[in-house]
Amino acid sequence: MVAKRFHKKKKPIPIQEYVEGIKAGDRTILAKAITLIESNNLDHFRAGQQLLQEILPLTGKSMRIGITGVPGAGKSTFIERFGTELCKMGKKVAVLAIDPSSTLSQGSILGDKTRMEKLSREENAFIRPSPSGGNLGGVHRKTRETILLCEAAGFDMILVETVGVGQSEVDVRTMVDMFLLLTITGAGDDLQGMKKGIMELVDAIIVTKADGDNKEKALKTRNEYNQILRLLKQATDGWGTKAVACSSITGEGINEIWELITKFFADTKKSGVFYTRRREQTIDWLITSIKERLEQSFFQHELVKEQLPIVKRNVEKGKLPVSIAVENLLSAYFNQEH
Amino acid sequence: MVAKRFHKKKKPIPIQEYVEGIKAGDRTILAKAITLIESNNLDHFRAGQQLLQEILPLTGKSMRIGITGVPGAGKSTFIERFGTELCKMGKKVAVLAIDPSSTLSQGSILGDKTRMEKLSREENAFIRPSPSGGNLGGVHRKTRETILLCEAAGFDMILVETVGVGQSEVDVRTMVDMFLLLTITGAGDDLQGMKKGIMELVDAIIVTKADGDNKEKALKTRNEYNQILRLLKQATDGWGTKAVACSSITGEGINEIWELITKFFADTKKSGVFYTRRREQTIDWLITSIKERLEQSFFQHELVKEQLPIVKRNVEKGKLPVSIAVENLLSAYFNQEH
């Protein structure tokens, strides 16, 4: 019996078992499937790919929504409240949190998981931090594939949360249908300090903490954003980005946000922008993945790792023209086996 | 005699002849050397690389200045005037014009060459359109290498002109020390209509056509820019981007621009930002070139060209997961000879 259990532990779960479990909406199997997808082990990777192939026909039917905002903007509290409301409406909500500044084992968003205590107790919710760091392109692939797995498991609302710093918003924009920016009213200069770029990436700005003493200020900030937004480029063709205010405590404004979201999906599906974007995102993902793999293959190549620092030094010192450096490195690389 | 001349025509100029000519500041040889660098012929390319290696110790001593602005902003007129003033001061001025919308044989900037008639008659001026279009990464490499050749030929002011549309400003920013945006006073909404991004790329904004009836409006526009600039990110550490006004007709403001430029170079050399940027630009160029060559090698590969459209269709239709598509394409590519 002991031997049998030991044996069972080592034996990988058959793909078909994953497929059945996911189809049945089993969250434990879903979590294991995501771990498989995330693994850098080659066998796991291959099994994960086979699994993806199997569940592919079941994917694509969710609302994919990105949520960004600087730390302190109230993302966790908002997702907790909003997600719980969605569950009450009968939605199945998956929350995938990407934290570029942390690794899987430690980091602020994993901490958030325990903060979203109420939501995590909901039967129709699934909360999962997305690993980051490590290998090139890993975040894209793993988060995108996790979205697909969640969709196959019947989750119809996928909330992809990211910290509003660095490159991660740009990455998330490429994998969601609608993108929300969460912000709070601040020291008056918060509009100036914010990177203009991010406002042109999002489809709605949500001013949080519109409650108590802060409510009036929050509404004022919302109005200021709406003024600025008129001057900026839209993130989505035919959709005017709007700012709204809400309180994750009182729940005021949450309904309005849900209406805005349903309108966004209705409008963009009607105009076809939704479908075009999904198609383009998939092809972009393909091309980006190829480029990343090519770069990975090159820059991780033993010979390149050995020669590149020397070449860099010579180029910096003006001893070697860039073009010759490139030629030398590439011919060394291509003449080796892969 | 005829046979000999015929023979001579076919024979390539020896590298050493190029080197000597460039060292002597011979503009005809310089022009031929640039043609060599620009050639897509493999022999020419190799000769060009050898030449670059030879002249590399003579490079790096110019002020590399980028100039951008939408068509009609008065770029040619400004460069004509400013360049002529620089020549009078004893500077040697090279103007390299990148026009992403045209090919070598035709296009608006080539037209500009004849418009810069006065400057092109100056003994210390050299005007050259930079080819674009065509192969991946060509513009970067060729313009960068042309800058090096001009420097070796003793040109101490390199003006890289580009039309302010699309990607070209971002590219030019990576190859110059200082970047100028030329603009005119407009219909009042010109500040709003302008992409915020470009203002965060440049080190000075020059409002041109500040003469006659237009002068007052131009000064007002300059002041408006200066107000906006305070809210934006600086392009260069420690340098506050400024707006100035000038007239390329009366020459008013041209001196002020020259003072601004010398201050920029003095300040950034003192702080070290100048040297750090040059070093980073070179390494970025190396890495970017490698990536471009890897992509070129992949996407131009016969097998990839044949399979990619089919793979794209299957991915779009949801028949094939992206990761599997990537794996298949890459193993097909790596298993072939290069």
From TrEMBL, chains A, B:
Q: Give the EC number(s) under which this enzyme is classified.
A: 3.6.5.-
Tell me which InterPro entries the record gives: GTPase_ArgK, P-loop_NTPase
UniProt GO MF annotations: hydrolase activity
Point out the coiled-coil segments of this chain.
none
The UniProt keyword set, sorted, is:
Hydrolase
Output the superkingdom of the source species. Bacteria
The kind of enzyme this is, by top-level EC class, is hydrolase
Known PANTHER family for this protein?
A: METHYLMALONIC ACIDURIA TYPE A PROTEIN, MITOCHONDRIAL, METHYLMALONYL-COA MUTASE
Family per record: Belongs to the SIMIBI class G3E GTPase family. ArgK/MeaB subfamily.
Report what the protein is called: Methylmalonyl Co-A mutase-associated GTPase MeaB
Organism classification, top ranks?
Bacteria, Bacillati, Bacillota, Bacilli, Bacillales
